[in-house]
Amino acid sequence: MREAGRIVAEALEEARKAIKPGIQTKEIDYIIENLIRKRGAEPAFKGYRGFPNASCISVNEGVVHGIPGRKCLKAGDIVSIDVGVKYRGYYGDAAATFPVSDVSDEARRLIEVTRKALGSGISACLLGNRVSDISHVIQVVAEDAGCSVIRDFVGHGIGRDMHEDPPIPNYGEPGKGALLEKGMVLAIEPMVNLGDYHIEILSDGWTVITKDRSLSAHFEHTVVVTKNGPMILTTL
Question: Which residues pair with 78 in a beta bridge?
Fold first, then answer.
């Protein structure tokens, strides 16, 4: 799983380097899939429940599950990229939101709040805590900044399957849910909006956008619960 996570991180870094005004989202997806396959791994999302691409790429009001295509990025956009990898029977999963050239102060603030929410959630991945301790700190960070957290989609356990128990909401009261035990591997993924948390799913059956069309950001890491604290697998 560490190697799967490293490949995910490498793919996200290559995507980050490719982001510029004028590039099509399908071109970024091609870069991601090419790198994954060169590393001897499989793009976990491609074909999953019929999803057509190696990555989910969501722009501006896009929350998650955006299908890469002919859409061109432009200066001022923010783009969320979610990558999953299967390597030797195990999965890694991570996401990040990137600015395209110069973005508004509000967009930059949203990205930083969401990144901070992920960091707080990871810090709560401690032996003896419960799943909702992760959920609660994510919600507190987002809402203290005047943002909202998505409630229709959640983080998850991960291992031999991409989505395993327990589900990990990004909101809730602390002290509830599954007990965190040594060796559990979790995909923590706050999705944070500048506006309201309600969403719509577009006619393609995949693309999720904010109902009020406010900007949305998404960060995710695959994390192991260890006796020495959380260990992030999806880093270089």
Answer: 99
The full DSSP string for 7-66 is: HHHHHHHHHHHH--TT-BHHHHHHHHHHHHHHTT-EETTTTGGG--SSEEEEETTEEE-P
Q: How far apart are CA 139 and CA 126, in angstroms?
A: 18
Give the DSSP H or E segment for 150. Answer: none
Q: Chunked in runs of 10, what are the mean pLDDT values of the chain (236 residues)?
A: 98 98 98 98 97 98 98 98 98 98 97 98 97 98 98 98 97 97 98 98 98 98 97 97
Contact in structure between 102 and 133 (CB atoms under 8 Å): no
Q: What is the pTM of this model?
A: 0.96
- Going by C-alpha positions, the residue among 43, 44, 74 that lies closest to residue 59 is 74
Write the DSSP symbol of residue 220: B
Residue 65 to residue 63: CA distance in whole angstroms? 7
Amino acid at 161: D
In sequence order, what are the residues at sequence separation of 6 or more whose Cβ sits closer than 8 angstroms to the Cβ of residue 47?
none
